[in-house]
Amino acid sequence: MGLINKTIGSVLFCLAITVPAWSQVDPAQIFSNSYRYEASGDYQKAISELTVLNGYDYHKSLRLGWLYYLAKDYGSSEKYYNQAIGLAPQSVEALLGLCAPLEAQKKTDDLEAAYKKILSLDKSNSKINYALGNIYYYRKDFAQAEKYFDLVQSMYPFDYYSNLMCAWTKYFLGKKNDAQRLFNIVLIISPTDQSAKDGLNLLK
User: Fold this and answer.
1) How far is CA 174 from the centre of its chain?
2) Nearest to residue 162, comparing CAs of 154, 170, 153, 172?
3) Do residues 99 and 114 touch, judged by C-beta distance below 8 A?
4) Which of 32, 36, 63, 153 is 20 to 30 Å from 129 at the Cα level?
5) What distance in Å separates the CA atoms of residue 111 and residue 197, rounded to the nearest whole number?
6) Domains in the chain, start-ordered, CATH in brackets?
């Protein structure tokens, strides 16, 4: 019994030392401090605040991805966003976050893959459909671009950007009637738009 009591006493002594130190870590306060440093533009301090945090691994990784992006350390940003995705594979927000450092690094192929992954989870995401349409448009793959721009334009028929990009895509595909109709829609949204006027002049 004496040995058992000594063992229990040792365990309780260790707990008495370790629990107060652990209990002093307040995740809400850590994140609050990090937000405060971010707001002041001190991204390194905002990052360092999070290093003492154990647990909340997804949230920590997601935030580190954002902070490193703000600090223009795009490689580290990509790393932490990928960590967040590994912890929550269905997270659209983490995939959206990853797009920022990929775009900054001009990793177009990786960006395209991220966009497609997002659409596999959220097929009607207008922002990503539009962005993927842009990738194909500037590759001059107008048939692929049309598919994504058409979807956005059908969801937002009074949206300036999707109508304009749809119009130019139809123009390059030789679909003159569709292009003319869409350029005219652009002009009711933005009556002085030069790009739409140029498109209509080319169709004459």
Assistant:
1) 34
2) 153
3) yes
4) 63
5) 32
6) 1-123 (1.25.40.10), 125-204 (1.25.40.10)
Among candidates 188, 184, 144, which has minimal Cα distance to 167?
184
pTM over the 0.70 mark: yes
Report the distance separating Cα 43 and Cα 183, nearest Å: 44
Contacts 24+ apart (CB under 8 A), 89-95: 90/121, 91/58, 92/118, 92/121, 92/122, 92/125, 93/62, 94/58, 94/62, 94/65, 95/121
Tokens, residue 135: 């990738």
What is the rounded distance in angstroms from the CA atom of residue 151 to the CA atom of residue 162?
9
> What token pair was written down for 152?
């956005």
For residue 36, what are the CA distances in angstroms to 32, 167, 173? 6, 45, 51
* Residue 24, pLDDT score: 66
70-82 pLDDT tens trace? 999 999 999 999 9
